[in-house]
Amino acid sequence: MGSLFENMQGVPLNHYIWFCAIIFTIGVIGVLVRRNAIIIFMSVELMLNAVNLLLAAFSVHHNDPSGQVFVFFIMALAAAEVAIGLSIIVMVYRNTQSIDINVLNRLKW
């Protein structure tokens, strides 16, 4: 019975790499294509989560916990980004009555 568990393997690292690449690409496309500020911030969060997952996968693969420490700091950065981003969106909405970033051209000098 011990040899059965020794032969079992987890998800291969290549699957994590491809999955994170797809998630990161979706986030980049969301930032470049969409004009809604909330969707742009969600796309940035999607990119950060793809990086977090890949760091955690490499950390487990190499038996080195330093990648998981970086994940913790990226999560703290993402929480601060959400708080600041939402406050900016609220202020833009108060001034322009829209969250479309094309409307922000009115704020130029």
How would you characterize the overall build of this protein?
With 109 residues, this protein is an all-alpha fold. 76% of the residues lie in helices and 0% in strands. The chain has helices spanning 2-7, 13-33, 37-61, 66-96. α2 runs antiparallel to α3 and α3 (37-61) runs antiparallel to α4. The longest helix has 31 residues, at 66-96. The radius of gyration is 19 Å and the shape is elongated. The model is unreliable at 1-8 (pLDDT under 50).
The biggest sheet, with number of strands, parallel, antiparallel or mixed sense and barrel status, is: none
Number of strands: 0
Query: How large is the share of residues in beta strands?
Result: under 5%
User: What general outline do the C-alpha atoms trace?
Assistant: elongated
CATH architecture: Orthogonal Bundle
Q: Helix-strand pattern, N to C? A: HHHH
How many helices? The count is 4
Calculate Rg over CA atoms.
Answer: 19 Å
Count of the separate structural domains: 1
What is the percent of helical residues? over 70%
Low-confidence residue ranges: 1-8
First-to-last CA distance: 73 Å
Q: Helices and strands: which structural class? A: mainly alpha
CATH topology: Helix Hairpins
The pLDDT mean sits at 84
Transmembrane segments: 15-33, 38-58, 70-93
Protein name: NADH-quinone oxidoreductase subunit K
Subcellular location: Cell membrane; Membrane
InterPro entries: NADH_UbQ_OxRdtase_chain4L/K, NUOK/Mnh_C1-like
